[in-house]
Every structure is written in structure tokens, then in C-alpha cells.
Amino acid sequence: MLSASPQFDAGLKARAANALLALVEAARLAGEIAMRDFRIGAQTCATVEFKHGGSPVTSADLAVDRFLKSRLSAKIPDAGWLSEETVDDSARLALSTVIVVDPIDGTRAFVSGDPRWTVSIALVADHRAVAGVVHAPALDETFAAAIGSGATLNGAPIAASTRRELAGAKIAGPRPLIARLGDASSVQLLSEPKIPSLAYRLARVASGSLDGAFAAADSHDWDIAAADVLLSESGACLTDAKGLPLSYNRAATRRGALAAAPSALLPSLISTLSLAFAGATAGNLTA
Prior knowledge:
- The structure is a single chain.
- The chain is of the alpha+beta class.
- It is built from seven helices and 14 strands.
- It folds into two domains: 10-157, Fructose-1,6-Bisphosphatase, Chain A, domain 1, CATH 3.30.540.10; 170-284, D-Maltodextrin-Binding Protein, domain 2.
- It is 33% helix and 23% strand.
- α1 (10-35) runs antiparallel to α2 (59-75) and α4 packs across α7.
């Protein structure tokens, strides 16, 4: 099982802390760009198109992506680039560091006027997320963390829940999966309405406002990398369905089912997740 308190050398911790300053500044500026087209409770004024597979992308997603690539490539010039809205360049695989970005995580929420969308940015070094920011401009919430420096929300320290038992835990994720979890565990889970931004869902576990969160298969590295370091620095973990830690900057960016929870609660969640997925099909569960 992944330790919530990994050890890192001083040089890497210093680099992560310095990088975080650039990531936070860029995320806030990117949020200002996106907010020009966001209308709370109403349809966005951005142009909306649909990718292959049916997921939406807006002119705001693309504008934020262009801004972040230009700014962060200048700030961290030796890092590769991986973003949902940029054609992937396999040259990143030969680099030890990569910037991982979701310009707008929760585009459907952005389009419909739901404020629970985020700008998600991570720095990955040697296949592990070492600095990350999950910025929710419409909620005025900025989650940030760097290895060895703790996690914060709007500059104040945060910590994951101290819950140890699954009974009564407040868990967020796809409704069909939450229902299966309750059946598999034979305990009542206090479900949270689905949070459209996966990064924000995971960040709330880091802040302790949720006891745990799940993602069904088909999330990608840009959805989770920034939140991963938030979780590890707050006393929680993000793992795959077998309880294994996640590795980044791989050729494949797509993920299977994931679980996030405080370290003491995670074994129970992983066990229950395995039971919940027994007999489930990908078609009836979404991230």
C-alpha cells in the first residue's frame, strides 16, 4: 500500500516548492481567462464543440491551454508537456519532468453554469506527481501542494479526514458505483451528489470535507495528477483498484478505477471497491 508520507531528497523538495509558486500563479491567471466565458447558472458564452466520443470542448478550454503552455514552458523550460487539449508528443517520455494539465476539468459543468470546475496543473518528476494545484475560479478555492511542504486551501493548511471505519463515511463518485459500494460493504455510505470535476472531487478528500472518493475507469492523468500530490501531502492516498500507487509520464494516460481516502480508511475502500466491481460493466459506470 502507498505510504502517505514518502521520503524525498532535499533537492527535489526544493524544486517542487519553487515550481508550485509558478503553477499557482499560472492557474489563477488561467482561471481569469476561463471566467470571461463562464455564466453561473446559465449556458457559457464560449463556443462549444464535441470531440470524438461526445465529450465537449469549448473555446475557453483551448484559450486556457494555449496560455498555460506558453507561460509554463517559459517558467519550467526543461519539462515536457501533457494536456487534455494538446496533441500528445511522445518526446515527453524521454524527459524526467513533465507538466500535466487539464485546462478546464469539468467542462460540462463549465458549459452549463455549474461552478464546480477547475484548472488542474501538476509537475511530475521521475514518474511521480511532486507539485500540484487544483484551482476552482468560480468558487474562489485554490488547493495547492508540493512534496514535503503539506497541502493548503487558499493558503491555509488542510488535512484529510481521520475516519477509520467505512460505516457512515461520506463518499463521492458515480452514483451506480456508490450504490454498489453500499451493497458490497453492507454498511450505509453517506453519498455526495456527483462532483463533475474529478480533480475537485479528489481535492475535497484532501481537505477532509469528504472521507473518500472514487473514479470509475477512463479518467486520464490530467484529471488526477495534481490531486494526487494534494492527497499524499494531506495524509491520504490515491491508488488503483488493487491499492497500488500511480506512476505518471507513461505512454498510456488512461486509468482504470481509482480510490482516494485517508490512509487508515483506504484498505477497507479498496476491498469494497473490488467487490463492487465484480460483475460490473464499464458501460454502467462513469468517472
